[in-house]
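Hey team,

Filing this mostly as a record. A colleague (T.K.) asked me to run one chain through the structure pipeline before their review meeting, and I want the input and output archived in the tracker in case anyone asks later how it was produced. No errors, nothing strange. Just documentation.

Input sequence:
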Amino acid sequence: MFVSGLGFIMISDEKFIYVYNNDEKILYKSYFGNITIYDITSSWDIAIEQQLIPQGTIGVINNFLEARFDFNSLNDFKKIPEYYQQNLNAFSGLRFAIVTVSPKDMVVPVLVKEYDKGYESRPFSTVEAARQWILERF
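Output structure:
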């Protein structure tokens, strides 16, 4: 669905929503509830398949403020950078901001950042700080 000024809003499942801001060239992706590695990768599969990352996109804000990571083991986090690196045709050069305030969940983006290759990621505790980091690049 396209919304004036925003680009599009797409709700998929009940675990995530995409909102694209045409002016900022940022994809906002919000997650809800308990989120598994499968939820993360399959939601990106949908975004790639439905071309929800338009040419010219400079970054993605992954908002986990209303979600919690539900991983089988701490090592599950490695599947996130592996997925991004396997899909550099969609993610190359993007900045990924991961927003969460839970101390338990904050460790995930900190660890993911250590494996960045072909894209950048960084943890944040507010959407506004994440937005500023993405926009400062341009």
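Quick notes for T.K.: Helices lie at 37-49, 79-86, 88-91, 103-113, 127-136. The CA atoms of residues 104 and 118 lie 27 Å apart.
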